Amino acid sequence: MSTSSLTRRAVLKTAALAPPAFAASSLAAPFVRGAYAAGKLSMGTWDHWVPGASQVLQKICAEWAEKEKVELTVDLITSNGDKDLITLMAEGQAKVGHDIMGLRTWYVNAHADKFVPVDDVVDPLLQKYGKIATAAEYCAKIDGRWLAVPTCYGSTAAATCARIDLFNQHAGLDLQKMYPGPDATPDQELIDNWTWETFLTAAEKCAKGGHPFGLGLSTCTDSINVAGVVFHAYGAQLVDANGDITVKSDATKYVLEWHKRLAKTMPESVYAYDNASNNKELISGKAALIMNAPSAYAVAARDRPEIAKQLWTFSSPKGPKGRFDATIYYYWGIWNFSKNIPAAKSLLAYLTTRENQEKLVNASSGFDLPPFASFLDFKAWEQVEPPRYTVYNFPPRRDVIPHLTGYPAPLKIGTQIYAQATMMKMIAQVTQSGKSVNDVINWAASELEGFMRS
């Protein structure tokens, strides 16, 4: 296969179709924590967009290598042009390359039969640190076995980021009172009233004031992530955990009608959004709200400090089924053709200690999100300013549940729901093309049946 044919969506489809069976060669000897590693080892991982974050990772790896007397190489691979994905697929096909590979959210399953099970690395982490986000487990624990280790590095969430001044002026909502920093008590009445219905009312008021929300209705991943939490909050599942198609429901009808109301508050340009569009709308001063990682704030702080001083990050609204933040997780997996699996497991066990995960979160200026709930007390989110505590409420704490669009459908189907942007196509047909809700739901059911057959 030529590299030009390895499009992002094609790779995701490959992930969805990958067989769940494990190759016999993946059944390596049990990992003994603390065993002397030695030998040579190589790691390929994403080159973090936050300046200096990747270098901190390399430093932590070098500390381990010196201690274990391992000759270690850590290659940083850019995501520009999907080079990291192309490298991953090429190594998997050739069965030669790095020992450890970094994996974006959906790509563990792409080569499930070529990764070494890492239960002996992950299970001790669970025993020591407690519950891991279901959204992180969803893509890495396949057929009951962990095939990759979740990490904060490269993982993040799309929390709500809004203008303090514009919400006060147009929506009459005090964001800092609702979700304050650690030195104050949240206003529970405001939090309880922060629902997707309140969100829609605020969108209408801010739009009338000349500052619409910057929420894409396109097929870019930011749009898919946000739509997924709205659907899930209302209990609108396209496919349930048993693999049954459940899109024909009152909840789905309601969510599509909800999006019809939302679309009326935003310009036509939202149907052409890419993943940078919402950031640009916020930083330009036009948008009153977006849903994004703290990268939007970071760019505003650099380029438009007067805007950054008015930004506040906080939890998503809640629906009848709960409050969910859109999350995406990053993983490290070990190829079964690795020549030094014990050393690879030893390094991953070292990288995922609380101490080292906190170093990585600090290096990312709070962009990275740990998969363990017990790690969400890291101090990094208290230190970003101005304004003071601006991203303190970025991690999904209290009643917030991390969510990944596609869940709880079986992984093969969930991957396709995400890759094909099924929810966004449904929304566009209702809000832009003028099709009836029932017709769109019937279309979606047919699409989902096709996913089942593929």
Structural notes for this entry:
This protein has helices spanning 8-17, 53-68, 83-94, 119-129, 134-140, 164-171, 175-178, 188-192, 196-208, 221-233, 250-263, 277-283, 295-303, 305-308, 341-351, 354-363, 380-383, 411-419, 422-431, 437-453, and strands at residues 39-46, 70-77, 100-103, 141-142, 145-146, 149-163, 289-292, 311-314, 318-319, 322-334, 400-403, 405-408. Strands 1, 2, 3, 6, 7, 8, 9, 10 and 11 form a 9-stranded mixed β-sheet that branches. The chain has 20 helices and 12 strands. Residues 1-36 have low confidence and may be disordered. It has 454 residues and is α/β, with parallel strands linked by helices. Helix 2 links the parallel strand 1 and strand 2. The chain has 2 domains: 3-154 and 330-377, Periplasmic binding protein-like II (D-Maltodextrin-Binding Protein, domain 2, 3-Layer(aba) Sandwich), CATH 3.40.190; 156-326 and 404-453, 3-Layer(aba) Sandwich (D-Maltodextrin-Binding Protein, domain 2), CATH 3.40.190.10.
Q: Average pLDDT value?
A: 92
CATH homologous superfamily descriptor of the largest domain: Periplasmic binding protein-like II
- What is the strand content? 15-25%
Number of helices: 20
Radius of gyration: 22 Å
What would you say the CATH architecture of the largest domain is? 3-Layer(aba) Sandwich
The class by helix and strand makeup works out as: alpha/beta
Integer count of domains: 2
Helix content range: 40-55%
- Sheet of most strands: 9 strands, mixed
Overall geometry comes to globular
CATH topology of the largest domain: D-Maltodextrin-Binding Protein, domain 2
> How many β-strand runs?
12
Oligomer: single chain
Reading off the top of the CATH hierarchy, the class of the largest domain is best stated as Alpha Beta
Low-confidence stretches: 1-36
> CA-to-CA gap between the ends?
20 Å
